[in-house]
Design goal:
Elements lengths: L2 E4 L6 E8 L2 E13 L3 E8 L2 E14 L2 E9 L6 H21 L15
Antiparallel strand pairs: 1-2, 2-3, 3-4, 4-5, 5-6
Amino acid sequence: MASTAIDARAGGSFRLSEQRGERTVEHRGFYADFVPPHRLAFTLTTPDHPVDTRIDVDIASRPRGCVLKLLHANVIPGHATRIRQRWIGMLYGLDATLRAGVSSRATPTAQEPVR
Protein backbone atom coordinates (compact mmCIF):
# COMPACT_ATOMS: atom_id res chain seq x y z
CA MET A 1 0.00 0.00 0.00
CA ALA A 2 1.31 3.42 -0.96
CA SER A 3 -1.20 5.32 1.19
CA THR A 4 -4.45 4.88 3.09
CA ALA A 5 -7.24 7.08 4.38
CA ILE A 6 -9.91 5.42 6.51
CA ASP A 7 -12.96 6.80 8.30
CA ALA A 8 -14.05 3.53 9.95
CA ARG A 9 -17.70 4.06 10.84
CA ALA A 10 -21.09 3.45 9.24
CA GLY A 11 -21.39 6.20 6.62
CA GLY A 12 -17.61 6.69 6.55
CA SER A 13 -15.36 6.07 3.57
CA PHE A 14 -11.94 4.72 2.70
CA ARG A 15 -9.26 5.12 0.05
CA LEU A 16 -6.38 2.67 -0.40
CA SER A 17 -3.65 3.49 -2.93
CA GLU A 18 -1.63 0.51 -4.13
CA GLN A 19 1.62 0.84 -6.08
CA ARG A 20 1.79 -1.58 -9.05
CA GLY A 21 5.11 -0.90 -10.71
CA GLU A 22 4.94 2.61 -12.16
CA ARG A 23 1.15 2.78 -11.74
CA THR A 24 -0.82 3.77 -8.62
CA VAL A 25 -4.17 1.99 -8.30
CA GLU A 26 -6.81 3.45 -6.02
CA HIS A 27 -9.49 1.42 -4.22
CA ARG A 28 -12.40 3.45 -2.77
CA GLY A 29 -15.56 2.69 -0.90
CA PHE A 30 -18.11 3.54 1.76
CA TYR A 31 -18.98 1.68 4.93
CA ALA A 32 -22.65 0.70 4.87
CA ASP A 33 -22.55 -1.15 8.20
CA PHE A 34 -19.85 -1.20 10.87
CA VAL A 35 -20.52 -3.22 14.03
CA PRO A 36 -17.21 -4.39 15.55
CA PRO A 37 -16.45 -7.23 16.03
CA HIS A 38 -19.46 -8.84 14.33
CA ARG A 39 -20.25 -7.15 11.02
CA LEU A 40 -18.71 -5.06 8.29
CA ALA A 41 -20.41 -4.11 5.02
CA PHE A 42 -18.93 -1.77 2.44
CA THR A 43 -18.91 -0.81 -1.22
CA LEU A 44 -15.77 -1.11 -3.34
CA THR A 45 -14.76 0.64 -6.54
CA THR A 46 -11.49 -0.07 -8.36
CA PRO A 47 -10.16 0.86 -11.81
CA ASP A 48 -9.95 -2.89 -12.62
CA HIS A 49 -13.65 -3.39 -11.92
CA PRO A 50 -15.82 -0.58 -13.37
CA VAL A 51 -18.97 -1.70 -11.51
CA ASP A 52 -19.44 -0.87 -7.80
CA THR A 53 -19.43 -4.02 -5.71
CA ARG A 54 -20.54 -4.68 -2.15
CA ILE A 55 -18.79 -6.79 0.45
CA ASP A 56 -20.58 -8.14 3.52
CA VAL A 57 -18.53 -9.76 6.29
CA ASP A 58 -20.22 -11.43 9.25
CA ILE A 59 -18.26 -12.93 12.15
CA ALA A 60 -19.86 -15.24 14.72
CA SER A 61 -17.98 -16.42 17.78
CA ARG A 62 -17.75 -20.12 18.54
CA PRO A 63 -16.47 -21.95 21.63
CA ARG A 64 -13.14 -22.43 19.80
CA GLY A 65 -12.61 -19.45 17.51
CA CYS A 66 -15.13 -17.99 15.12
CA VAL A 67 -16.81 -18.38 11.74
CA LEU A 68 -16.32 -15.68 9.11
CA LYS A 69 -18.80 -15.41 6.24
CA LEU A 70 -17.87 -13.17 3.32
CA LEU A 71 -20.10 -12.25 0.39
CA HIS A 72 -18.73 -10.13 -2.48
CA ALA A 73 -21.73 -9.13 -4.61
CA ASN A 74 -22.06 -7.58 -8.07
CA VAL A 75 -18.80 -9.02 -9.38
CA ILE A 76 -18.36 -9.16 -13.15
CA PRO A 77 -18.42 -12.91 -14.00
CA GLY A 78 -15.09 -12.78 -15.83
CA HIS A 79 -13.43 -11.32 -12.71
CA ALA A 80 -14.87 -13.76 -10.16
CA THR A 81 -11.98 -16.27 -10.09
CA ARG A 82 -9.30 -13.58 -9.69
CA ILE A 83 -11.30 -11.79 -6.98
CA ARG A 84 -11.88 -15.08 -5.14
CA GLN A 85 -8.13 -15.80 -5.17
CA ARG A 86 -7.37 -12.32 -3.79
CA TRP A 87 -9.85 -12.80 -0.93
CA ILE A 88 -8.31 -16.18 -0.12
CA GLY A 89 -4.87 -14.53 0.04
CA MET A 90 -6.13 -11.70 2.27
CA LEU A 91 -7.88 -14.10 4.64
CA TYR A 92 -4.76 -16.28 4.91
CA GLY A 93 -2.81 -13.11 5.69
CA LEU A 94 -5.37 -12.14 8.35
CA ASP A 95 -5.10 -15.60 9.90
CA ALA A 96 -1.29 -15.39 10.00
CA THR A 97 -1.44 -11.92 11.59
CA LEU A 98 -3.91 -13.01 14.26
CA ARG A 99 -1.93 -16.18 15.05
CA ALA A 100 1.26 -14.13 15.44
CA GLY A 101 -0.33 -12.15 18.26
CA VAL A 102 -0.24 -8.54 19.32
CA SER A 103 3.46 -8.42 20.26
CA SER A 104 4.69 -8.98 16.69
CA ARG A 105 2.40 -6.43 15.01
CA ALA A 106 3.77 -3.15 13.74
CA THR A 107 2.91 -0.05 15.73
CA PRO A 108 -0.26 1.52 14.30
CA THR A 109 0.07 4.90 12.64
CA ALA A 110 -2.54 7.61 12.51
CA GLN A 111 -4.49 7.86 9.28
CA GLU A 112 -6.22 10.98 8.07
CA PRO A 113 -9.94 10.68 7.24
CA VAL A 114 -11.12 10.53 3.65
CA ARG A 115 -12.57 13.84 2.51
